[in-house]
User: Fold this.
Amino acid sequence: MKMKDGRIRMRHKAEHEVDLDTGALLAVTVQGADKDDPTTLYETLIEPTEQIAKVCESCGEITPEGTTELAADKEYHSNTVLWDMRDTGIRTYMSEAKGPRRDWKRREKKEQKALYANRRRTRADRYKSLMRKQGCPRLFYRPSRRTHW
Assistant:
């Protein structure tokens, strides 16, 4: 939808999940542009797991373990997402947006532990190698995160 000043208002955004080791595109989901990124992350993570389970079931093979690590942009970073991923056994590698110091007095300790674990991992060499792979154009073409329809 074109606005009066010439800008285009987004109606949808496309998100994709890519295996950074092989470069295989695992899932593409189209989300409403009115949803925030941490909310849409869950559907994007569930889609490839369901598809791989269907393929394995039809072939009679054992279903693989699913997503074990998640490298995402800072738009997906939230305390809730970090705790949910930790609770399901997924290691997160998400950079934090710059902001004020966090006040942990009114928050649960589990959120603080999940955030600090993520922060520690983003300073490690594994995070740096994942970010290099994520930005490598030879692995896959990374389209614009938001698509206008």
Q: What stands out?
A: The longest helix spans residues 37-59. The radius of gyration is 17 Å.
